[in-house]
Amino acid sequence: MENPENKRVRTLVNHWLQAHPNRIRNRRQRPEMFQGWKLAAMRYLRQGNPHDTNAILTWFATQAEGSAMED
Q1: How far, in Å, CA of 67 to CA of 9, rounded?
Q2: What pLDDT does residue 68 have?
Q3: Environment class of residue 69 by beta-carbon count within 10 Å: exposed (0-12), middle (13-18) or buried (19+)?
Q4: With the C-alpha atoms ordered 55, 58, 6, 44, is the resulting torsion angle positive or negative?
Q5: What predicted TM-score, i.e. pTM, was given to this entire model?
Q6: In this predicted model, what pLDDT tens digit does every residue of 11-48 receive, in sequence order?
Q7: What is the chain's Cα-based Rg?
Q8: CA–CA gap between residue 22 and residue 5 (Å, rounded)
Q9: Cβ–Cβ under 8 Å, residues 25 and 70
Q10: Cα gap 15→39, rounded to integer Å
Q11: Which residues contact 16 (CB under 8 A, 6 or more apart)?
């Protein structure tokens, strides 16, 4: 069973993704890359300030969309 903190963080990531359907489009088309992005986003949220969830995920999506990480 998933612990409550992981469940909370996973829910935050999923809600952010639903609210921003145009972000990280290339990752969404490739399931293994999308899953990796979600897991990394969860790690960033666990380490960051809970009040900065939107800013953290926006920053991380911008990094993923940048030329250094995009295919």
Answers
A1: 27
A2: 47
A3: middle
A4: negative
A5: 0.85
A6: 999 999 999 999 998 888 899 999 999 999 999 999 98
A7: 12
A8: 27
A9: no
A10: 14
A11: 53, 54, 57
Per the model's pLDDT, the better-predicted residue between 70 and 26 turns out to be 26
Max Cα–Cα distance, the chain, nearest Å:
38
Please tell me the distance from the alpha carbon of residue 31 to that of residue 6, in angstroms, as a whole number. 20
List the one residue out of 16, 28, 21, 27 whose CA is nearest residue 55: 16
Which of left, alpha, beta for 24 (phi over 0: left; psi -120 to 50: alpha)? Answer: left
